[in-house]
Write a structure and sequence with these properties.
Structural class: alpha+beta
Strand order of the largest sheet: 1-2-3-6-7-8
Number of strands: 8
Radius of gyration: 18 Å
Oligomer: single chain
Helix content: 25-40%
Largest sheet: 6 strands, antiparallel
Order of helices and strands: EEEEEEEEHHHHHHHH
Strand content: 15-25%
C-alpha cells in the first residue's frame, strides 16, 4: 500500500507533509536538501505522451511519530530502483533500540516518500488510472502499464499487484499480461541488475523506444 496524504496539503508546497501507512503517521520534510535532476525511466510515449520522471537522487527527513524516531535518508536511482546511499536515525525519546532498527523497514519508508518525489505520481497508481477519463484506452496501452510497473518497482512497491488492482484482474492474469508486455518492453526485475550494468539497461530502453513506433494499443485484446 502506498501512503496516502492525510493532511490535505499537497506534498512539497510547504516542505512538510504527513502521510499514513498501516495506521502509522509519518511527517516528511525536505529540509535544505535539493533533489537531483529529473531523469526519464522506462518507456516513453503511449497514449498520454508522457514520460515517467524521477529525481536522480534525493534526501528527505522522515519522522516516524509512532516509533518516536527521526530518519534522514539519502537515495540515488541506480539502473532500476532507488538505492540507499546513507541513513541517519535519531531517537526523539530515549535511545534507538535494536528492535527499532530491525523493524524500521527502509523500503517501506521509500514507498511513503514516493508521492513527494515523483511528478504526477498518482497518474501511475491504480486509483489514478481508474479515475482517468481515458481509462478504457489506458487498459490497452502497454507503454502506460510498463511505466506503472517501473514506477512502483523503483520505490519498492508491488507493481504486479498495482496493475492487477488497476485493471480489476487476478494476480495470475496480471502475470500473463506482464509477460506479453515484457516481450516488447523491458521491465525491471528484482535483484537482476548489477551497478555495472547501468549502460546495458540504457541500451535496452533505447531499443524499447524504437519498438514503440510499431506498437498498437489494441493488440492487448488479440
Amino acid at each position: 500500500m502506498i501512503g496516502v496524504l492525510s493532511s490535505g496539503v499537497a506534498p512539497g508546497i510547504f516542505g512538510v507533509w504527513q502521510t499514513s501507512f498501516m495506521h502509522e503517521v509519518v511527517t516528511v520534510e525536505r529540509g535544505d536538501f535539493r533533489d537531483g535532476n529529473l531523469i526519464s525511466v522506462g518507456p516513453t510515449g503511449g497514449i498520454l505522451g508522457k514520460s515517467l520522471l524521477l529525481p536522480a537522487e534525493f534526501s528527505r527527513i522522515a519522522t516516524l511519530n509512532d516509533k518516536k524516531l527521526k530518519m534522514t535518508i539519502h537515495c540515488e536511482f541506480v539502473a532500476e530502483r532507488y538505492e540507499v546511499k546513507g541513513v541517519n536515525i535519531e531517537a526523539l525519546e530515549g535511545f534507538v533500540s535494536t528492535r527499532d532498527l530491525t523493524q524500521l523497514g527502509i523500503p517501506r519508508v521509500i514507498r511513503l516518500l514516493a508521492p513527494d518525489l515523483i511528478p504526477d505520481f498518482r497518474l501511475w497508481t491504480a486509483g489514478g488510472m481508474q479515475k482517468n477519463p481515458m481509462f478504457e484506452e489506458l487498459k490497452n496501452d502497454w507503454v502506460y502499464l510498463a511505466q506503472m510497473y517501473w514506477m512502483h518497482s523503483a520505490v519498492y512497491g508491488k507493481p504486479r499487484i498495482e496493475i492487477a488492482n488497476a485493471l480489476g484482474i487476478s494476480k495470475s492474469t496480471s502475470n500473463v499480461l506482464l509477460r506479453r508486455i515484457e516481450a516488447e518492453i523491458p521491465l525491471p526485475r528484482d535483484n537482476s541488475l548489477k551497478f555495472s550494468e547501468v549502460s546495458s539497461t540504457k541500451r535496452n530502453l533505447e531499443n524499447a523506444k524504437t519498438k514503440m513506433q510499431d506498437y498498437r494499443p489494441g493488440d492487448l485484446e488479440s
